[in-house]
Amino acid sequence: MLAYVAKRLLGLVPVLLGVVFLVFSMLWLAPGDPVLALLGEGAQGISAAQVEELRRAYGLDRSFPEQFVAYLGDVVRLDLGVSLRSSQAVTTEVLSRFPATLALAGSAMAVAIAIGGVFGVLAAIHKGTWVDSVAIVVALLGVSVPVFWSGLVLMLVFALGLGWLPASGFGSWRHLIMPAAAVGFSSSAVIARVTRASLIEALRQDYVRTARAKGLPERSVRLKHALKNALLPVVTVVGLQFGGLLGGAVLTETVFAWPGVGRLLVDAIKSRDLPLVQGAVLLVATLFILVNLVVDLSYAALNPKVRYG
Amino acid sequence: MADLPAAAAPGPTAASPLRRILASPAAGRFLRHRGAVAGLVLVAGLLAGAVLAPVLAPYDPVAQDLRARLRPPSAEHWFGTDEFGRDVLSRVVYGARISLVTGLVPVLTGLVVGTAIGLLAGFYRGWIDDVLMRVMDVLLAFPSLLLALAVVGTLGPGLVNAVIAVSVVSVPGYARLARSVVIAAREEEYVHAARSLGAGDGRLMLRHVLPATVGALTVQATLGIGFAILSMAGLSFLGLGVQPPTSDWGEMLSRGRRFLPGSSWLLLYPGAAISLTVLAFNLLGDGLRDAFDPRDQAG
After folding, report:
1. Is the ipTM of this complex over 0.90?
2. Chain A: residue nearest B253 by CA?
3. Which of A157, B107, B154, B162 has fewest C-beta within 10 Å?
């Protein structure tokens, strides 16, 4: 297992380097002079001599590889520059928004697993009946309905209509319910599909027939014998859904005025605050890569075949 | 066109291309698939609606009528009016145009670029494969919406940049899929046979290997349209995609949510339109997948 962990960690290095390179390139791919892009609004009324002075000060007069190495050094020291808008360190600003996004993504994940798991198991056990059809339709809606729209409809019904929940904002667990439900529902669809397919497959296996032949109650055959073995593919797909959850969080944070990284990023894009955009993209992508690593490792821990494959 | 008379005459000699397709086992499986047929009908309806928008829409979608602002649905305005007195039904109908176009363009771009990358990587293997696939791995290391936002954040908000963003996000998926099919296909006997007959790399790739990818890529592309429409709607909803006054569903939602709870119709119809459109392409894509690959059916 240790060798596998080391191999996976090593494999991460080129991907992380590529991600840093891509984020670094954003400054060069942005239209116009990089110096002016870094100045944002502050570029107005600045003289050509000052621009050249700043170019040297920022190190933008050096060659592209030199600049990339310098940027890489900064990234390793977690120095992602300064936000143009707030003049705060980008790292501090982005990290201060992480807890809100993680709380949303985490509870959305719980919702997704609960809804997806229940529908998937019910559909598999009642395969071919109306229960199965309902589950399939719900799963299709989950992947088809935009998460920001289901969020708005929830808000319309439960906050503005019935008044049961606060419409937007951040603070108590009651603020979390609607955003988590909206994001979780859209991710539950894939989990339901995979759970259903995997459990149907498991129920066909010989060990299930053996368990039934032993006279075990059907409930214990399904839950203890079949479901336990059906869970492996579900673990992978839950991990893969995390990217979708983060994307959903970006959209839902805007709907519910949730003070997470997503809203920070969208505001930064609108105000052309390039250092902040780069920092938020880099940190969220790194988080996503690390989560996928953890998922892969736990999958390998559960299934020895992967380690030696 | 030459075989039209033959197709019109019934009997075993009648074999127009359309009939041949309809008689294939895949078409049979597709047509027996209720969801797939529903998807096909919905997609056809949407296309017709988008083309016939000037005929179907009761009003000019951008014509303002400040005396009729924020009117609820009525016989005059079935879906109500927005804060400028514009007819919501007409805007939803015209919105189908921009949604379908901005959904199709990224998929076609992703399909062409991705297939080319996958074809080169899978056909030549070696260092070309390594380099291309490492680049794809880096793109896949981002959550898709985050990558789209990174592109829009670099190029700036707007319709064209949003389409570029969703196109970039689409590329790696097609590249990987095409590569996996190509790796299997290049070892097929007919490819070896063509090579021994003197076919060059270009001819082998385009004439013999590329056709093998059509089935898998068609399924992926159909499902990809739904994804592209959702992503574009998301970007427009965030104010980073389609800009006013263009009739776009995501943009309508973005503005409409300011008039809650009083004017819920500004929210319900555009959102339902996005959901229905994405649902239609997902149904169609699922149906095509089951038709092309009957082994893959989980049920």
Report:
1. no
2. A149
3. A157
